[in-house]
Design goal:
The protein is of the alpha/beta class. The chain is about 35% helix and about 25% strand. The structure holds guanosine-5'-diphosphate (GDP) and magnesium ion.
C-alpha cells in the first residue's frame, strides 16, 4: 500500500502578529474565501481551517494583545509546522512595536526541525510601506542567519485578496516539505480508557517485552493527569525503548510509541488523525480501526505479519 491521501491531514500552523494587524481577517479569508469585515479583537486563541490540495492547515489565530504575546506566541509557534506572521504595513506608528515583537519571536523560538515562515506585510490596499522599506526597517535580511527557518516575504491584502494565493501556495508547499522531513517510526500504539483500561494494543516491534513499563508510565501520566497533560491534553515520556506520546480526548487516551529521535509534532499529528477517525465512525469495527491505524501510521505491507495485536479487556 502506497502513501494514501487521508481525508484529514490536518497540519498545525500559527498566525501571529500585533493586535489589529489583520490576522483574524486573514484567517477568515483563508477559511471562507471571503472578506469578512467587522472582526472583533481576538480573545485567546481561535482556529480556522484552510484546505490546500489534500492537506488541511489548522490555523491557530493567536490573539495579538501584549499579555498574550509572551504567554502564547512561542508555545504555539514551537508546536507548529509554520508561522504566518502578519504585519500591518499601513500603520507607521506601530512599526517599531511590530519589529520588536517579530524579533522577540524569532530570537526565542526553539525548534529542532525546519519551520516555514511567511512574513505578510498586510493592508497593501491602503497607503502603506513599500516592501523594500519593510525589509530594511525590520531588518528582515537577518532571517537568512537562521538555518531552521525557511522564510519568504509577501505584500498582501486580506481585504482585496491581493497576493494571498501566492503567499499560501508558497507556504503550503514549504509546510508539506516540513511534514515530509518529520517522519516517525511507530513501534506500538495503545488505545485505552481514561482509567487506564486497554482497549487495543498494536505492537509493531518489541514493545510487548516492555509492555509493563509502558503501562506503568501510562498510569503515572493518567493518575496525575491534571499536572502531566499539557495544552491539548498531551504528555510525552522518553524511555529507553522509545518515546511515548500520550493524548487524552473525550473518554479515551491514545499512546503512540515511536523512536526516541522521532518528531513529537508528527506523532501528535498522527494521533490526531486517529482520533478524528474514531469520532467520525461511531460503530467502527476492530478490524476496520486496525486497518485505518496501520495505513495512517504507514506501516509497510511487509511488516503486517509482525503486527501483534492484543485486545486486553478492561
Ligand atoms: N484596508 C484593510 N484593512 C484590513 C486588512 N486586514 C485587516 N483589516 C482591518 O484591520 C482591522 C483589524 O483586523 P483583525 O483581523 O481584527 O486584526 P487582528 O487583531 O490581527 O486579528 C479590522 O478593522 C480589519 O477590517 C486589509 O488587508 N486591508
Ligand atoms: Mg484577531
Amino acid at each position: 500500500m502506497e502513501n494514501l491521501n487521508f481525508e484529514k491531514k490536518s497540519v498545525p500552523v500559527t498566525l501571529l502578529g500585533l493586535n489589529n494587524a489583520g490576522k483574524t481577517s486573514l484567517a477568515l479569508r483563508l477559511a471562507t474565501g471571503k472578506w469578512v469585515d467587522n472582526t472583533s479583537p481576538t480573545i485567546g486563541v481561535n482556529f480556522e481551517t484552510y484546505r490546500a490540495g489534500d492537506s488541511l492547515l489548522k490555523i491557530f489565530d493567536v490573539g495579538g494583545h501584549e499579555v498574550l504575546r509572551r504567554q502564547f506566541w512561542l508555545n504555539y509557534a514551537a508546536n507548529s509546522y509554520g508561522v504566518l506572521f502578519v504585519f500591518d504595513a499601513s500603520d507607521k506608528k506601530r512599526t517599531e512595536e511590530g519589529k520588536e515583537w517579530f524579533w522577540y519571536l524569532i530570537d526565542n523560538l526553539e525548534v529542532e526541525r525546519r519551520i516555514a515562515l511567511a512574513f505578510l506585510a498586510n493592508k497593501a490596499d491602503l497607503e502603506s510601506m513599500e516592501m523594500d522599506e519593510v525589509i530594511e526597517v525590520l531588518d528582515l535580511q537577518k532571517l537568512s542567519k537562521f538555518p531552521k527557518i525557511s522564510f519568504q516575504i509577501f505584500e498582501v491584502s486580506a481585504k482585496t485578496a491581493m497576493n494571498v494565493d501566492t503567499a499560501m501556495n508558497w507556504f503550503t508547499k514549504k509546510i508539506q516539505e516540513c511534514t515530509r522531513e518529520n517522519t516517525v517510526s511507530p513501534k506500538g500504539l495503545i488505545i485505552s480508557s481514561i482509567f487506564g483500561n486497554i482497549k487495543l494494543f498494536l505492537d509493531f516491534s518489541d514493545v510487548q517485552q516492555n509492555l509493563i513499563s509502558v503501562l506503568d508510565m501510562l498510569s503515572e501520566v493518567l493518575n496525575d493527569k491534571d499536572n502531566t497533560l499539557r495544552d491539548e491534553r498531551i504528555a510525552s515520556v522518553v524511555s529507553p525503548y522509545g518515546q511515548i506520546i500520550f493524548q487524552e480526548r473525550g473518554e479515551i487516551v491514545i499512546s503512540l510509541i515511536v523512536e526516541p529521535e522521532d518528531s513529537q509534532l508528527e506523532a501528535q499529528r498522527l494521533i490526531e488523525i486517529i482520533y478524528e477517525h474514531i469520532e467520525r465512525q461511531h460503530s467502527t469495527s476492530k478490524d476496520e480501526l486496525m486497518e485505518f491505524i496501520i495505513r495512517t501510521l504507514n506501516i509497510p505491507a511487509d511488516d503486517y505479519s509482525e503486527i501483534n495485536e492484543y485486545i486486553l479487556k478492561g
